[in-house]
């Protein structure tokens, strides 16, 4: 049975990708340190679902533990590595920079080294739309310059792309960077706006809309993200330097104001809105150009914000009513 290594398997995207791989008949070895950046109970519940499948092997550990990673790479013959583990969050990076250096830089370098030594056929890794930073060109294209990150989190993701290119160039390691655009959906991250807004609206607490509600985000539903990642698994770059990057976005950005309107409709409650100026580390608009993704995978994300938020709210109500 083919084995695939998924880091961050207890995280939002990692959980869904792992579940898809298990459904498709893969043996998944999942690594996660289950840190307390957000509710660990939610992470453990995700793991509980994955562990029901006998083809899932879970390892609790950190990317910084190079000895553990070497052991896993030697024990299993991974045909592919999907590296989704990272310290997430733009605003948290402003207050806790060393956490990002350890996980996102040292941890990623450890993954690259293990992939190099074991001649892994394909490494896919999570990057982020945040690398576009102060870029003014809309929509964001993978060919745009990305030397102006406006948060430490974004800087670490840009550094990941540079490190990946170097390993592709020096060692012919096939790498594919995945620039995710504001992923949302069931089993999502409580620190993300769609989740925290839902909590606040349900509890009749105020929500804070930065840039006076005029921030625009290319919200991308989790099922579309998983399908894109799955289709990219067998498609490493065939260029002389086997390195490529794809945007994974919905290509239909909406304002936070409209986003909240849709949430209010689904929750059948009115939000208490507090309007605030821009926050450090934020960008006004994200908008993905996915031409390269569509060309390579023959896939275009299709779930609208209205459909996606309806699915999320259904899950939210069911999940929290069962706790």
Read across the widest sheet, the strand sequence of neighbours is 3-2-1-4-5-6-11
Task: Write down the Rg.
Answer: 19 Å
Structural class computed from helices and strand pairing: alpha/beta
The top-level CATH class is Alpha Beta
Beta-strand fraction estimate: 15-25%
Summed up, the domain count is: 1
On the 0 to 100 scale, the average pLDDT is 94
Q: Estimate percent helicity.
A: 40-55%
**Number of helix segments?**
11
Biggest sheet architecture: 7 strands, parallel
What overall form do the CA principal axes indicate? globular
What is the assigned CATH homologous superfamily? NAD(P)-binding Rossmann-like Domain
CATH topology: Rossmann fold
Intertermini distance: 36 Å
Oligomeric state, counting identical vs distinct chains? single chain
Pfam family, one: Epimerase
Domain NAD-dependent epimerase/dehydratase: 4-249
Keywords: NAD
InterPro entries: Epimerase_deHydtase, NAD(P)-bd_dom_sf
Overview of this protein structure:
The structure is a single chain. The chain is an alpha/beta fold. It has one domain: Rossmann fold, CATH 3.40.50. Helix content is 43%, strand content 18%. The protein has 11 helices and 13 strands. The strands form 4 sheets. Strands 3-2-1-4-5-6-11 form a 7-stranded parallel β-sheet, sandwiched between helices. A two-stranded parallel sheet has the order 7-10. It has a two-stranded parallel sheet with strand order 8-13. Helix 2 (40-51) links the parallel strand 2 (27-32) and strand 3 (56-60). Helix 3 (66-75) runs parallel beside helix 5. Keywords: NAD. Residues 4-249 form the NAD-dependent epimerase/dehydratase domain. This is NAD-dependent epimerase/dehydratase family protein.
